[in-house]
């Protein structure tokens, strides 16, 4: 504390810290402390009988063909979900930021409106559309695309559809935020210099929106990697994913230690992928600068 500072100045300097303190306490109590317990459970022998011996057996048991296939299934589903959300969400975000005009806020409300309802309700709403005598099935039958009403549930396509529907807003909103803050004079300057729409998009809009793409992919792919409800309800449990494996180990088999190890694995894998992605981006930028 400097001698010339008044009490009001000292309080004013501490306001940002005081405002962030509730969020910090919330994250500590509901995220960091439970995560610490998960780490401890995953590396101990049997806490139920008071055996706190350290072991890596629970992690070693995960290195098998079965667990590898589960992780691969979850990774592929997360990549497909992230890719489709990007392909669908980028044009939507671009239209909202550049072309929507006075209808922008109304369209944003419609975009986030499904999020105001329960996540499970959003999933079950698709049952009435994809079931055997649902809207889509009857429409395809009336158009002659199918000889009789068929169920469109319990398959991989239904799982991907549900994942994209539920996670699409998490892709659109970060992209919209970045595109909305973009200096529109850059687009006018590109047009004055003779650039067409595609050249303007690839040389100005797309590079300046890379941060929104990265944030959107992270917000979609990380939770999609550990998703349980959508593949379980819409996919018909035909493929095993890491979210269901965690549920089975905790709730069915009561194997808390192996379950905790799977939780840590699902936590570490996205971090490793993000680190590799970040390092690859830095290397590519360095190579471009050298060229």
Distance between the termini: 50 Å
CATH topology heading:
MetI-like fold
CATH superfamily: MetI-like
pLDDT below 50 for ≥5 consecutive residues: which ranges? Answer: none
Element-by-element helix/strand order: HEEHHHHHHHHHHHHH
If you average the pLDDT, what whole number results? 86
Strand content: under 5%
What form results from the Cα inertia axes?
globular
Helix content: over 70%
Provide the number of structural domains: 1
Q: Quick gist of this model?
A:
The chain has helices spanning 7-42, 57-60, 65-98, 104-112, 119-125, 127-130, 135-142, 156-181, 185-192, 197-208, 210-225, 229-234, 242-252, 256-290, and strands at 44-46, 51-54.
Task: Outline the structure in words.
- The protein has helices at residues 7-42, 57-60, 65-98, 104-112, 119-125, 127-130, 135-142, 156-181, 185-192, 197-208, 210-225, 229-234, 242-252, 256-290; strands at 44-46, 51-54.
- With 291 residues, it is mostly helical.
- The chain has a two-stranded antiparallel ribbon.
- The chain has one domain: MetI-like (MetI-like fold), CATH 1.10.3720.10.
- It is globular and about 75 Å long.
- It starts with 6 loop residues before the first helix and ends with a helix.
- Strand 1 and strand 2 form a beta hairpin.
- Helix 3 (65-98) packs antiparallel against helix 11 and helix 8 runs antiparallel to helix 11 (210-225).
- Helix content is 74%, strand content 2%.
Secondary structure layout:
Elements: H1 7-42, E1 44-46, E2 51-54, H2 57-60, H3 65-98, H4 104-112, H5 119-125, H6 127-130, H7 135-142, H8 156-181, H9 185-192, H10 197-208, H11 210-225, H12 229-234, H13 242-252, H14 256-290
Antiparallel strand pairs: 1-2
Helix pairs in contact: 1-14, 3-8, 3-11, 8-11, 9-10, 13-14
């Amino acid at each position: 504390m400097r001698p010339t500072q008044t009490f009001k100045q000292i309080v004013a300097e501490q306001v940002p810290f005081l405002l962030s303190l509730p969020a910090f306490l919330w994250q500590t109590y509901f995220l960091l402390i439970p995560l610490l317990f998960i780490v401890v459970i995953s590396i101990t022998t049997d806490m139920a009988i008071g055996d706190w011996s350290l072991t890596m057996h629970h992690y070693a048991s995960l290195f098998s063909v079965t667990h590898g296939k589960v992780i691969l299934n979850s990774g592929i589903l997360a990549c497909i979900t992230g890719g489709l959300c990007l392909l669908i969400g980028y044009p939507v975000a671009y239209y909202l930021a550049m072309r929507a005009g006075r209808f922008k806020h109304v369209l944003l409300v419609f975009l986030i409106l499904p999020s105001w309802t329960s996540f499970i309700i959003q999933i079950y709403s698709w049952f009435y559309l994809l079931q055997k005598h649902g809207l889509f099935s009857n429409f395809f039958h009336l158009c002659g695309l199918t000889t009789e009403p068929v169920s469109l549930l319990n398959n991989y396509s239904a799982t991907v559809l549900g994942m994209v529907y539920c996670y699409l807003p998490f892709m659109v909103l970060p992209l919209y935020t970045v595109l909305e803050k973009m200096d529109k004079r850059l687009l006018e300057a590109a047009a004055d210099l003779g650039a067409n729409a595609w050249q303007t998009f690839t040389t100005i809009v797309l590079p300046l929106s890379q941060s929104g793409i990265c944030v959107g992919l992270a917000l979609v792919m990380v939770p999609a990697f550990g998703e349980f409800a959508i593949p379980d309800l819409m996919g018909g449990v035909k493929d095993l994913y890491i979210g269901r494996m965690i549920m089975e180990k905790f709730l069915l088999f009561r194997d808390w230690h192996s379950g905790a190890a799977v939780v840590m694995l699902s936590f570490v894998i996205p971090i490793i992928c993000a680190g590799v992605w970040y390092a690859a981006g830095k290397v590519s930028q360095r190579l471009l600068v050298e060229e």
